Amino acid sequence: MAKVLDRPGGVESHQEPKAGTRSPFYKGSAALAVVVLLVVALVFGIRYYLYARSHESTDDAFIEGRIIQISPKVAGHVLKVYVSDNQRMKPGDLLVELDRRDFETRLAQAQATLQEEISKHRTAGTNVELTRANTSAVMQETLSGLQRAKAELQAAEAEVAAARSRLEQVSAAVLTARANWEQARALQAAAQAEAVRANADLQRYQELYERDEVSRQQLDQVTTVARMSAAQLEAAHARVAAAEAQVAEARATEQWSNANLRQMESQRSGAQAKVGEASGRLAAANTATQQVAVSKFEAETIAADIEQARAAMAQAELELSYTRIYAPEAGRVTRKIVVAGAFVQVGQALMAIVPADLWVVANFKETQLRELRVGQPVKIRVDAYPDRPFKGRIDSIQTGTGARFSMLPPENATGNYVKVVQRVPVKILFDEPPDSAHVLGPGMSVVPEVKVK
Q1: DSSP characters over 49-98
Q2: Beta-bridge mates of residue 2
Q3: How many domains does the chain have?
Q4: Does pLDDT of 93 surpass 80?
């Protein structure tokens, strides 16, 4: 309501404004608000235009990284698993351990075979020397009794060496028999476990049969399996007994060889009196040149067998080492599917390790590549952490579009052609690894913003 002075009397009077009219104050405020809005829109528009000119971005981007699949190199039962899902690992940490007993037995067999071949080689070398001595004896048969006695003495010494070599060979046989006995005991333990399981099944099926829950045929089948398991257990007991007998026999042979060696040493003393006769035998060996060559060939063949046995032992040691699977490098355990007690095959996926070195693969449009350069700074915004931007830089730009390297690249030579803007993968590296509060992993979506100017 406005005050108005009455001109004739000078008396104040009140007069209502006319309907449909506004005060000049309201008109000025509305105009000012419109101007402010236009100025703000202009400022933000200019800032967005300048930012868009100096930056390139895309929402077709994701985090990429190396995924190391952990697989066994030998087949076997899993004895123990030392890791859990998403656990951090250091290089060399033990992941999985397989049952080592079968591989230890193979290694023991390979070691025994190597010792046996070495003993054979020593015996073959002794035979070569003995043959040479006999050949020389034949050549010197006409020499004096002194020369013959010397040849006999040499032969006696060769026999002593042969007895020692036989003793070493028998000792190797003892080791072999011992390994066979340990293997028989392992088979006996397996048969014992199978018999216990079969008897438990038989007892359970008998109870079920008494309650008419299984047929007589099923009970008979389980009974047959239990009997077969019992027979196999008896056979395993017999094999263990036979192996123990072989061990005892090999030890007895070893004792006899030791006594024989002492006897050969005593005979060497008596051979000193027959030096002349041994010289004659040495002269006769001149006609046995071919026999010496055969002995050499046998020794060389056994030497090759020794190398083969060493390679087999090295292979057995390597397979034994494969029963313990270690982490190849640092990272987090992912997709662990192995459990204790499972039987795993060679190359079977047990788990995966994702190292901490991650990067971003951003698929920019080919029209955006004009301003992109290697080394340009990048602000990386991860969808999982919108309030925590990461810093990075362009590492490389792929030579070719992503579609060209796909499994079925497009062929535009036939049919109708529609031009589509292609995308080119760009690799972006993080300037610093993310902290523990912001866990990043392959496949996470990001929006990189590259400062091009």
Answers
A1: HHHHHHEEE-S-EEEEE--EEE--SS-EEEEEE---TT-EE-TT-EEEEE
A2: 15
A3: 3
A4: yes
Average pLDDT of the chain is 80
Q: Which residues span the domain enclosing 182?
A: 101-321
- Could you read off the pLDDT of 409-420 as tens digits, one per residue? 877 766 677 788
User: Residue 98 and residue 113: Cα distance in Å, rounded?
Assistant: 25
Sign of dihedral through CA atoms 78, 83, 85, 91? negative
Task: Report the alpha-carbon distance of residue 175 to residue 251 in Å, rounded.
Answer: 10
Cβ neighbours of residue 127 closer than 8 Å, sequence gap 6 or more: 162, 295, 298, 299
pLDDT at 421 over 90: no
Whether the per-residue pLDDT at 315 is higher than 80: the answer is yes
Q: Is 449 within the bounds of a domain?
A: yes
Residue 30 to residue 19: CA distance in whole angstroms: 20
Q: What angle do CA 380, 382, 383 make, to 5 degrees?
A: 145
pLDDT tier at 135, thresholds 50, 70, 90:
low
The pTM for the full model equals: 0.52
Question: What pLDDT does 273 receive?
Answer: 64
Q: What are phi and psi of 166, to 5 degrees?
A: -65, -35
Residue 196 lies in a domain: yes
Residues 83 and 126 in one domain: no
Same domain, 225 and 164: yes
Q: Which amino acid is at 312?
A: A
Same domain flag for 317 and 339: no
CA-nearest of 282, 289, 269 to 147 is 282
How many Cβ atoms from other residues are within 10 Å of residue 20's Cβ?
5
Q: Do 229 and 195 meet the contact criterion of CB atoms below 8 Å apart?
A: yes
Provide the pLDDT confidence category of residue 43 given band limits of 50, 70 and 90: low
Residue 173 lies in a domain: yes
Give residue 126's pLDDT.
79
